[in-house]
Design goal:
By secondary structure, this protein is α/β, with parallel strands linked by helices. The protein folds into 2 domains: 3-107, Aldehyde oxidase/xanthine dehydrogenase, molybdopterin binding domain (Aldehyde Oxidoreductase, domain 4), CATH 3.30.365; 131-261, Aldehyde Oxidoreductase, domain 4 (2-Layer Sandwich). Helix 1 runs parallel beside helix 2 (66-90) and helix 3 crosses helix 4 (234-246). The chain has helices at residues 30-42, 66-90, 158-178, 234-246; strands at 3-13, 16-21, 49-52, 100-107, 131-137, 143-151, 183-184, 187-188, 207-212.
């Protein structure tokens, strides 16, 4: 299935450049990635750039998810900047007011499911990331710390990267130990957020984030997205640590009495 990102850059005034894309910014940092890419490509002062998402600007995209967004937004902004960079060689920004620059990046070379021929080089994704997490317990079996090593390709923004992984580990720990969403007759037993078992700040163990930069040939500047992969290893790492502690495999989530394995500060 083709995956497409589209960007448009509008020169609104001598000190106002707008970068349009079609992705929903829901905390994954896509606006920052678009801004950093535009600045890297053109050298325009970031204070003059605004990133917008508006449905009437004709910048369609696929599903909004963090892992794909960085690659597609970055590549489409790079494409939109190509002609703008050329124009800036011979023109001041004030001389380009009113102009629009469009860019698109599309992946349409992945293999279709079920129709590949024997011996064919199957391509399932255009970006691959890898992750490993280690859970360390203290002598009483409580989680002492978590180390999360994640391959993100070129890390454009270390603060965003670390925050994404730290937040993901928090979600992964909740999934493993405390969070639940019980239903009664097909309806939620409670609509109160505090009863969902989300781990509170005082019960979070320290999280050490290690960035691994194996560049991706298709990502902008070698970037890979970091989204869902942030919490994928956590529950498995917790279960393995507890098994080594007391020899018991936990085979359902959330782990029974999971809260007792969290630190109390």
């Amino acid at each position: 299935m083709p995956d497409i990102g589209v960007a448009k850059i509008t020169i609104e005034s001598a000190d106002k450049v707008v970068v349009h894309h079609g992705w929903t910014e829901m905390g994954q940092g896509l606006h920052t990635m678009a801004l950093q890419t535009a600045v890297e490509e053109t050298g325009i002062d970031p204070s003059a750039i605004e990133v917008r998402v508006e449905t009437n600007e004709e910048t369609p995209c696929g599903m909004t998810t963090a892992s794909r967004g960085t690659s597609l937004v970055g590549n489409s902004v790079i494409e939109a900047c190509r002609q703008l960079k050329e124009d800036l060689r011979t023109h001041k920004l004030s001389e380009l007011v009113g102009r629009e620059y469009r860019g698109q990046w599309k992946c349409d070379w992945t293999s279709k499911v079920g129709i590949t021929r024997e011996g064919e080089d199957v391509k399932t994704h255009y970006s691959y990331g890898y992750a490993a997490q280690m859970v360390e317990l203290d002598e009483s079996g409580k989680i002492k710390r978590i180390v999360a090593a994640h391959d993100a390709g070129r890390i454009m923004n270390p603060n965003l990267f670390e925050g994404q992984i730290e937040g993901a580990v928090h979600m992964g720990l909740g999934y493993a130990l405390t969070e639940d969403f019980p239903l009664k007759d097909g309806r939620p037993a409670s609509l109160e957020l505090r009863k969902c078992g989300i781990i509170r700040a005082r019960n979070m163990p320290p999280v050490e984030v290690i960035g691994v930069e194996v560049t991706d040939p298709h990502g902008p500047y070698g970037v890979k997205g970091v989204g869902e992969i942030g919490l994928v290893p956590t529950a498995g790492a917790v279960a393995c640590a507890l098994m080594q502690f007391d020899g018991v495999w936990r085979r359902s989530l959330p782990i029974k009495d999971g809260k007792k394995f969290l630190p109390e500060t």
